[in-house]
Structure formats: structure tokens, C-alpha cells
Amino acid sequence: MKLPLQVTFRNMDPSEALEQNIRERAEKLNHFYDRLMSCRVMVEAQHRHHRQGNLYHVRLDLTVPGGELAVSRDPAQDHAHEDVYVAVRDAFDAARRRLEDFARRQRQEVKTHAAPALGRVAQLYPAEDYGIIETPDGREIRFRRDSLGEREFDRLAIGDEVTFDEEAGAEGPEASTVTPKGQRHV
């Protein structure tokens, strides 16, 4: 980190052991994402109940190149946060996940879902439970009856447009998840 870690305690007495735990966790974040510029941690005791344990709220503000990430673990529904160390652990775990997502976006490794391919039914062999799809670039892709619903296969006709996902099969490219599209062509 370029700036020193800042730890703030609210509605509670400062604890050297807790601050050391926070410093160790912040150092792990710094090893995980070496471009971390600063980290501010606020630990707050929500209530001063003596019959039941206090609930702790932990907030982390991380400064990274191009922005700031804020992580807040609100204890309202989680009675495990009666233990301040659990609340701190949960907040740092959430911060690590946020940093992972941020780093993936920076490296442009965000998941994208490919659109299904488009083709036309070129051949049907109902007795053998398969057919052939011809793609716009002239390739032939085999598909099986179980790639669509039972009734859908029986409704297919040569020339029907379909969308499909392509995968490697035992006999070459094979279509999975075949979906009829549009009306039949004569």
C-alpha cells in the first residue's frame, strides 16, 4: 500500500489484538492486489446491550487505481457478528472478492456468453434419431433427437431455421441445445 493503513474504532475501546488482526488481513489484501493504494477500516459496536452480545459493523474503504471500493458488513441479520473477529473476517473476505472482480475487469477477463449459432435443418433421419444442420458458412453439424424436446424433433422439417450450441462430438462437430426458430420453409 502506498498510504499507511487507517483503523478506527467507534463505540468501543481500541484493541491491540484486533488491530493486529486487521493489519494482517490488510497485508494479505495488499499481497493479493499489489496496486492497492490505501485501506481504511472502521469497526463499530452497534449497541451497548449487556444481556446479549454487541453486534459489530465493519466498513472497508479501499483506494485502487481509477476508483474506490467500499465494503460494508452490516450485522443487522447476522448474529455471528456478535464476535468482532467474525465481523472483520467477513468484511475482509468480501473485500477480497471485490478486489478479484476489479482485477478481472482491469485485465478485461469478464465472462461473456456467446450467442448460439444459427443454421438450417439440411437432413433429418427420424428412424436413427438424428439430423444435420447446415451453417451459413456451409459446414454440416450433426444433432441428436435428445438435443431438443421429443415433440420438437418430430415437428422439424428440412429448411427450418434453428439456433444451437456447438461442441466436439465423437464423429466431429455436434450441436447441443437445438432450438427451432421461425417458421418452416418449403
Question: Which SSEs are present, and which pair or pack?
Answer:
Elements: E1 6-10, H1 16-32, E2 38-45, E3 56-64, E4 67-73, H2 84-106, E5 117-125, E6 130-134, E7 140-144, H3 150-155, E8 161-169, E9 172-181
Parallel strand pairs: 1-2, 7-9
Antiparallel strand pairs: 2-3, 3-4, 5-6, 5-8, 6-7, 8-9
Quick structural gist:
With 186 residues, the chain is α+β, with helices and mostly antiparallel strands.
Task: Provide keyphrases for this structure.
DNA binding, OB fold (Dihydrolipoamide Acetyltransferase, E2P), five-stranded mixed beta barrel, Double Stranded RNA Binding Domain, 186 residues, DNA-binding, Cold-shock protein DNA-binding protein
Structure description:
With 186 residues, the chain is an alpha+beta fold. It folds into 2 domains: 6-106, Double Stranded RNA Binding Domain (2-Layer Sandwich), CATH 3.30.160; 117-181, OB fold (Dihydrolipoamide Acetyltransferase, E2P) (Beta Barrel). The protein has helices spanning 16-32, 84-106, 150-155, and strands spanning 6-10, 38-45, 56-64, 67-73, 117-125, 130-134, 140-144, 161-169, 172-181. Strand 8 (161-169) and strand 9 form a beta hairpin. Helix 1 (16-32) runs parallel beside helix 2 (84-106). The mean pLDDT is 84.
